[in-house]
Amino acid sequence: MEGALGSLLCTASHKGGASAFTHMNELAGQSLGGYLLEEEIGRGSMGMVYRGKQFALGRDVAIKILPHALAKDTSYVARFIREARIIAGLNHPNIVQIYDAGEQKGVLYFVMEYVQGPTLGSLLRLDGQIPQHLAAEYAAQIADALDCAYSERNVIHRDIKPENLMLDRWGKIKVMDFGLARAPGLQRITVARTLVGSIYYASPEQIWGQPLDNRSDIYALGVVLYEMVTGQRPFNGRTLPEVTQAITSGQLRPPSWLNPQLAPGLEQIILKALARDRTLRYEQARQMAEELRALNLRVEEPRAPTSGGPLSPLPPTNPRAFAVQPPRRPRLAEQRPSFAEWRAQRSATQFPPEPPHGRPGSAEPAGLGEWHSSPGYASLLEQPPQQGPAPGRGASETELVPPDDPSEKAGLWQHLQRLLGRSGKGDQEPGPAMPSGDGYAHSG
To answer: Where is the composition biased (Low complexity) (predicted)?
Structure first.
């Protein structure tokens, strides 16, 4: 691997980065070395990343390619090859692994393991926050990777941010993009007292231009952890001077101010990692990882509020309470008055006057007076009929025998006909209900 990377640097220096591909997007579907480029999956300041397939083993890989425009600059070529060398010298489960490196037709590339999953940056854009028990575990894995890089190779990443931290399908963090990393024994490309990486995750000593060590990466990890549990960065600004001033002299808002449910122990770890004086931070990243795992955070159980309100949970309900029950048929004694009550109520009722009517089937009026001059039909019912039995419950119309004396009983006859819903002219009218026994005998 070292020989291949060394030959890449010599080849790029002699060819000046000339490339047969005028547009990098056209590489999809092309072969590069022993790999097939299938789809572009990422793009950054130091190159483009394609998802590819290795012909020999048939496995998915990630192939990083230096664009043609950057290949003309020898500093970018040197940085590209240095990144491949740094990754090749690290072996940790939380650091992306490199498989191969090469050059074909002036195109520089190196091949890494393909991580199928999102970045922490994409998770934060979608969800806003990450549960604190997951955030603590992710931060512990990142700290393990940083401790391995610095303790074994003295590598300082210098660009720790959510976009360079990927999460695979097993929930394991992979630290990516060592393009700005610094390691002893390798060529120093960055100009002295210049800021590299994202400004939001830069430590105060980076802004001041002081020599850096692993505590700068610990500070950046503290910013990432702060953002995971609150959804916001600790320092912001509209312009670059405002951001740098906030980092170097601004007041830090405690993360519990943005997330009141944050565990106090986790907040203390974040504040220690974000100390402006680096002598107050963790000396080694593994110390931060040990304290994060010692918290032993678990999945939070949802707690019901003590006071009632629109957000209060509903009490447990009986599913049978929502079953549709048939309506209960009311009892007649509960709904209908007695006959004596009904008769007294109807006797006291004042009806409007009606025109006189003749006998059924007769065209001549009976010559009776106005309705108010005749007694109420309830009082007439108290008198025994002149002839014929009184109609009983359910009696048909043919069983009703009219009285013989029209001058006395015509009014009763008329109202009995009205109870049956019939007028003297044979018109159909809905009549009132008349009690009979314990129920009603309805007319019509």
So the answer is: 383-395
What is the set of active-site residues? 159
Terminus-to-terminus CA distance in the chain, angstroms? 106
The residue written with tokens 């939380």 in the block is 94
Which tokens sit at 345?
């109520």
174 is in an annotated binding site: no
| 138-193 pLDDT, tens digit each | 999 999 999 999 988 888 988 899 999 999 988 899 998 887 877 765 555 454 44
Q: Which two tokens stand for residue 224?
A: 């990432």
325 sits in the region (left: phi over 0; alpha: psi -120 to 50; else beta) called beta
Contact between residue 149 and residue 188 where contact means Cβ atoms under 8 Å apart:
no
DSSP 310-378: TTSPPPP--GGGGSPPPPPPPPHHHHS--HHHHHHHHHTPPPPP------TT-SS------GGGSPPHH
pLDDT in tens, 313-335: 544 545 444 444 455 555 555 55
- Domain annotation for the chain: domains and CATH numbers: 1-114 (3.30.200.20), 116-300 (1.10.510.10), 334-441 (no CATH)
Burial grade of 17 (CB within 10 A; 0-12, 13-18, 19 or more)? buried
Report yes or no: 217 and 158 within 8 Å, Cβ to Cβ: yes
pTM, entire model: 0.62
